[in-house]
Design a protein that fits this description.
The complex is a heterodimer of chains A (about 550) and B (about 130).
Chain A lengths: L7 H16 L29 H5 L22 E2 L8 H13 L4 E5 L2 H4 L23 H7 L9 E5 L4 H14 L8 E4 L4 H7 L6 H18 L6 E4 L1 H5 L4 H21 L4 H4 L3 E7 L3 H22 L5 H4 L3 E5 L11 H15 L4 E3 L12 H16 L14 H24 L2 H6 L2 H18 L27 H16 L2 H16 L5 H9 L4 H12 L9
Parallel strand pairs in A: 1-8, 2-3, 3-4, 5-6, 6-7, 7-8
Helix pairs in contact in A: 3-5, 6-21, 10-12, 10-16, 12-14, 12-16, 14-15, 20-21, 20-22
Chain B lengths: L5 E5 L8 H12 L3 E4 L6 H10 L4 E6 L4 H14 L6 E6 L6 H6 L4 E3 L5 H11 L5
Parallel strand pairs in B: 1-2, 1-3, 3-4, 4-5
Helix pairs in contact in B: 2-3
The chains are: A alpha/beta (about 550), B alpha/beta (about 130).
Chain lengths: ~550, ~130
């Protein structure tokens, strides 16, 4: 009788592993990633049998870009070290930017405060206590002029984390550039402009999903024509992960959001290859080292294949997924905060090994407050040490070919495709969001992880193990109320000095455009030039479209 | 027999980071409490009204944005006006050390920073909330 031949791994298990396990059992019955994914003891040739190198992995710079979009990796150009900053008034933040540029920076990354992000002026009741706290307050074009005073927009690239009022803030930036004499065809930067993840996770939405999507396709069309170097959207998994998703959910929902934007652009009559190259991504660099690396590698492959096969994109630039990453804020602990430096370094290393195009490293004190200048410098130094001292930037995709990493990459891809199918069956991401599907999936994962921490199945050093009593407090940045007072005074002054007839006419024109189908960018630009405030412009649209209210899912 | 504790979990201010609020809402519910989650963007007036309407024993605020110095005093004043002084008020979130004594002084009983075990919060509420039959 013939038996099926034993594989090399099975032989090893029988001859070597089993006797070893009898002598000394393993630390746990089963091992899982931080996302709860089961992990085998050992990966070998057997695990990668179905993977075809040329088709599924390929050398860097070649389709499907699993090993990276650049043939030379970081040997040509290192990733961009782009640190996110903003606080208080535009005057204070302008000073910080000038310091950063003087220190050799070429890129800026603007953090706005909650009133700006939510389209509320400083005098709105919900802005109480929030002005200038989590970022810089920008109420009107006057603030944008101050924010970039003395900075030549033709020479820097600026990333702006703004979503619901992205069109208004972007219009302000364009008008400042115009006043400086910069050519819109030449300036470059990024607006986050990703509303789907706001409904899913970050919750800084204003308008209902459908009109929100229209603003985005209007920006795609406007930029393809008038501001061709601008990155019109940064499709973001970062916030999905911070809300408690698993690595797979972050990957799947983010990429599916990306496909949704492309579909809406195509449905609006745009040519895929005219706007997709300006779409970029933003991922979380979390703590489970190999799972994160697999996530980035799978993301590149999934995007390339979807663009080529689902949307018939012909331009290679449409196939190449470019992404920014930020280390996981949610992993930072208020306890023993110096441990956060180590966490951040490991997370940053995984992003680099996964081929990130730009990176923000969090500061050790961010579970407590916005970072001090010293903490922010240490965070930047962490990236510089990885880049200059560790040697990891000298070879392209050094983990390519690892049985474990290739298998995990494949598993991530398969898992994401299964989620795509589920969401496609619902009719798309907008429909899935309307039914609360991604929201429920994330809430479930987030609670499951918390329970695992409570049961000590997952260890957080300094929180549920290796705890230290009576820790001395560290020095943190304290933001007082002076920014709110200054911004309120400036708003009052602005309302006295601007031509209110012009403002009213511009807001009327914006309402009319919102009721129809014309591109919204021109009337928004006109309102900005008339010094209408972010709150007034958003209110005009609220009057036409209403506001979104979610059904909370717990 | 004491009735189940009624807890209003509220997310005041403009911030939308609701992971903590949702996790604690679920943990308190699993611990046998009646939990009402208000959803996002609540003003102090809305939170006080919810507490009155829901006959709450406990209000849990989740604040990460730094707006606690405005929201908490207003809420405490409104609770007093509505005769709800005996409702236990606790805050979870990012609260600088400097602000903790001020919050305690105005009557916020429990302040829970990142990393607090759910069990500690459950025990604190069980020990400090008013008991009614």
């Amino acid at each position: 009788m013939k038996t099926v031949a034993e594989t090399a791994k099975q032989r090893w298990e029988r001859e070597t592993l089993e006797p070893a396990l009898k002598k000394s059992p393993e630390r746990a019955q089963s091992f899982t990633t931080i996302s709860g994914r089961p992990i085998d003891r050992l990966y070998t040739q057997d695990d990668v049998e179905g993977i075809d190198y040329a088709r599924d992995v390929a050398n860097p710079g070649e389709f499907p870009y699993t090993r990276g979009i650049h043939p030379t990796g970081y040997r040509g150009k290192l990733w961009t070290m782009r640190q996110f900053a903003g606080f208080g008034t535009p005057e204070e933040t302008n000073e910080r930017y000038k310091t950063l540029l003087k220190a050799g920076g070429t890129g800026l990354s603007v953090a706005f405060d909650l009133p700006t992000l939510m389209g509320r002026d400083p005098d709105h009741e919900l802005s109480l206590g929030e002005v200038g706290k989590c970022g810089v307050n920008v109420t009107s074009l006057a603030d944008m002029e101050t924010l970039f005073d003395g900075i030549t927009l033709a020479d820097v690239t600026t990333s702006m984390t703004i979503n619901s009022p992205a069109a208004m803030i972007f219009a302000m930036y364009l008008v400042v550039a115009e006043k400086q004499g910069a050519d819109w065809k030449k300036i470059s930067g990024t607006i986050q402009n990703d509303i789907l993840k706001e409904f899913i996770a970050q919750k800084e939405y204003i308008f209902p999903p459908r009109p929100s999507m229209r603003i985005i396709t209007d920006i795609f069309a406007f930029c393809a024509d008038r501001v061709p170097k601008w990155n019109t959207i940064s499709v973001s998994g970062y916030h999905i992960r911070e809300a408690g998703s698993t690595a797979l959910q972050e990957l799947a929902f983010t990429l599916r959001d990306g496909l949704e934007y492309v579909q809406w652009g195509v449905d609006a009559g745009l040519d895929v290859d005219a706007f997709v190259p300006q779409i970029s991504f933003f991922f979380n660099a979390h703590s489970d080292f190999f799972e994160e690396i697999a996530k980035y590698r799978a993301a590149r492959k999934l995007w390339a294949e979807a663009m080529r096969d689902r949307f018939s994109a012909k331009n290679e630039r449409s196939w190449k997924l470019r992404f920014h990453s930020q280390t996981a804020g949610v992993s930072l602990t208020a306890q023993q905060p110096y441990n956060n430096v180590v966490r951040t370094a490991l997370q940053a290393l995984s992003a680099v090994l996964g081929g990130t195009n730009s990176l923000h490293t969090n500061s050790l004190d961010e579970a407590l407050a916005l970072p001090t200048a010293e903490a922010a410098t240490l965070a930047l130094r962490t990236q510089q040490i990885i880049a200059s001292e560790s040697g990891v930037a000298n070879v392209v995709d050094p983990l390519g070919g690892s049985y474990f990493v290739e298998k995990l990459t494949k598993d991530m891809e398969d898992g994401a495709l299964a989620y795509f199918e589920q969401i496609d069956r619902m009719g798309g991401m907008v429909e899935a969001i309307e039914r609360g599907f991604p929201q429920k999936e994330i809430a479930e994962s987030s609670y499951r992880f918390q329970q695992a921490v409570e049961r000590h199945e997952k260890i957080i050093v300094g929180v549920n193990d290796f705890v230290q009593e009576n820790e001395p407090p560290i020095h943190i940045l304290y933001i007082d109320e002076s920014a709110a007072e200054k911004q309120l005074a400036k708003l009052e002054q602005l309302k006295k000095t601007r031509n209110s007839g012009n403002v009213e006419r511009a807001l009327d024109a914006l309402r009319t455009a919102a009721r129809g189908t014309a591109n919204l960018m021109p009337p928004i630009l006109d309102a900005v030039r008339a010094y209408a405030t972010v709150g007034e412009m958003c209110d005009a649209l609220r009057q036409v479209w209403g506001e979104y209210e979610e059904v909370p899912i717990i | 027999m004491a009735r189940k504790l009624r807890v209003v979990i509220a997310k005041p201010g403009l911030d939308g980071h609701d992971r903590g609020a949702k996790v604690i809402a679920r943990a308190l519910r699993d611990a046998g409490m009646e939990v009402i989650y208000t959803g996002l963007r609540q003003t102090p007036e809305m939170v006080a009204a919810a507490a009155l309407q829901e006959d709450a024993d406990v209000i849990g605020l989740s604040i990460l944005s730094g707006a606690h110095n405005h929201i908490a005093p207003q809420l405490m004043k409104l609770l007093k006006e509505k005769g709800l002084d005996d409702v236990l008020v606790v805050i979870g979130g990012i609260i600088p050390d400097l602000d903790i004594p001020k919050l305690k002084e105005i009557g916020v009983k429990g302040i829970f920073l990142p990393g607090t075990p759910m069990q500690d919060i459950i025990e604190f509420i069980n020990t400090n909330a008013r008991v009614r039959v």
